[in-house]
Amino acid sequence: MGSTRLVLLLLLLLLASPESVLNERPGDGCGHMVVHQESGTLTSMNYPNTYPNYTFCERRIQVPEGKKLLIKFGDVDIETQDCESSYLKIFSDSSKLEYAYCGTERAAPKEIFLDVNEAIVRFESGSHISGRGFLLNYASSEHPDLITCLERASHYFETMHSKFCPAGCRDVVGDVYGDAADGYRDTSVLCRAAIHAGVIADELGGQIHVIQHKGASQYDAMLANGILSQDGSLSDRRFTFTSNGCSRSLTVESSIVPSEQVTASSSWTWTSATSENLQWHPEQALLQNKGPSWASNHSSSREWLQIDLGKRERITGIITRGSMLPNFNFFVETYVIKFTKEGSKWKTYKGPLGKEEKIFKGNSNYLDTARNTFFPPLVARFVRIVPQTWHQRIALKAELLGCPITQGFYLVAIVAPVAVFVCLFLAGIGIYATLQKRKTKGDPYSRTDAQKTVGCWQKINPPFVRHQSAEFSICYNKENESLQKLDLLARNKADYQLPLMIGTETVTRKGSTFKPIDAETKDQICSAEIESHYACPQRGSRHDYALPLTTQEPEYATPIIERHRIQENTCNSEVGYNVPAISAAFQHLLSCPDHAKPSASDPGGVSYQTPHSLKCVEQGDYDKPKVSSSSMASQGSKSNYHRPQVGSLVNSGYLAPRDCLKPINWKTTVAEVL
């Protein structure tokens, strides 16, 4: 008696608080559900039959980020008295209600469009007598032409139209009449018919293109891609799907030699009571060959049938049959596919999602055909059919569908890697050239850190040979500083080379053979240049410049001839001149006269100094300066004259200072003196 009361008490608690049961078993009211990245299908339990009492279902559906969610209701049938015990609700998040359906008082909307990419579907049922529940499909906003799994071809009247089928329609109840070869009756549901025809994969869904035709008198049933179509009667219209045309028989077009290109793990030979033998060899496995099929000698999942196509082909599907003999009701129910391109390294086909090996549904009897489509197609030469389940004994015939690999496929497979390599190679060359250009961009003769004082040395152009000058001018500043004597480098008499720097010996000269041009203007210019020169640092590789002469009288430098020795009879002069040494290349121009008299017409009376070591030549070979009688008396009747340096002397290789010391035109100066 006590136990009976306890049971009754528990029943009362359950009836009074059904929510407690729901909390213990959340999600027990959900039915068929297939979710993919772009689309999916969700139904209540037992759809389209009556859903159970006191069930609860909650699922989250979503599409990729940045896209919006489109939901379409294929069917909603809920028996309820209020929205507390039985309802179907859509939430954009855990609290925001977007849609609610609570019974038959109003029709459910055909679709809802959410501004978010995910939503929560919640279904709850109480006590009821009837009701199918719900079926909904969803997709992203990129597919506004979404249709549900229940829509038929008869709902559309366009000759050609395109629709988007969601993933998961294969296992939804719906009639399909006919097959892909002859077309489908217009009362067939579109999405299941598309899966049956191999146009889309159930795991993915996809776009379908439908063409309406005039109806046929009869439609034949066929098992394809896990859907068994039905025989159909006469109809006004029928429809087909557009395809890529890659579904021809490869075993026929490849001219396979069965005895050589069809092999198996084993074969069976049947012996009758009268000792008759029936061979079930592998070469009988091709579908176009009449007679019994191939049968294995063992019943094991390690048995296989192999087909060699002779070359790589693009394989899109397979057709199988059973034993073909009514007395031998053998057929393969499920199988997997393995393939290879070269006969080694076998791979197992994994289907469109690529996560697990794909198990294909085979035949349901010994005679009827079963077709399966490969999504995606595979490229191989060798294909193995490995049975997983079978009826009585492993036995089958097979035919591979597909098409030859086009030349474009090979071109893409070859050209694409080559193009990538060429692009990378050119990019590497460009980067290398840029780096090299940056390394060599700076001028190797540009100023150093010690020479970067503003207003000092200027940038030197590419290497050059600085030719020594045969003459140079010396300027004086305004203060008329004291004269600085210029030393010359003593050299061997027999070895005269181009002088590289100022020497140590002193040469003095009285008077001047140059005529002033514009002393005041030149003094100003040279003074500014000298100030700038001394304000700038000098490089260690350059010689020091001579200081400007400081005599009170304006004196001008005259290049003279010197043997680089101090002669005993050298004339003393009041003023010393800075003179460069002469090159050995011009010694043949030097000579001294036996006698020379100054001209009486020249009142200047200028005497010239001649090296004593030179041998005199004819008097006519010398130019005589115009001098006065007074200068003749002071110097004597005989004087050694220097021959003016003209012509080639201009091109001699003396180094002249760059700042304030400028070469002058010797020809003009000599003409003025003479």
TrEMBL record:
It comes from the Eukaryota. It is a single-pass type I membrane protein. InterPro entries: CUB_dom (IPR000859), FA58C (IPR000421), Galactose-bd-like_sf (IPR008979), LCCL (IPR004043), LCCL_sf (IPR036609), Neuropilin_MCO_CoagFactor (IPR050633), Sperma_CUB_dom_sf (IPR035914). Residues 246-403 form the F5/8 type C domain. Residues 30-141 form the CUB domain. The chain crosses the membrane at residues 409-435. GO terms for molecular function: signaling receptor activity. Keywords: Disulfide bond, Membrane, Phosphoprotein, Signal, Transmembrane, Transmembrane helix. Pfam families: CUB (PF00431), F5_F8_type_C (PF00754), LCCL (PF03815). It is found in: Membrane. Disulfide bonds join C30-C57. Its main location: membrane. One of its GO terms (cellular component) is plasma membrane. Coiled coil: none annotated. Residues 143-239 form the LCCL domain. PANTHER family: DISCOIDIN, CUB AND LCCL DOMAIN-CONTAINING PROTEIN 1, F5/8 TYPE C DOMAIN-CONTAINING PROTEIN. This is Discoidin, CUB and LCCL domain-containing protein 1 isoform X4.
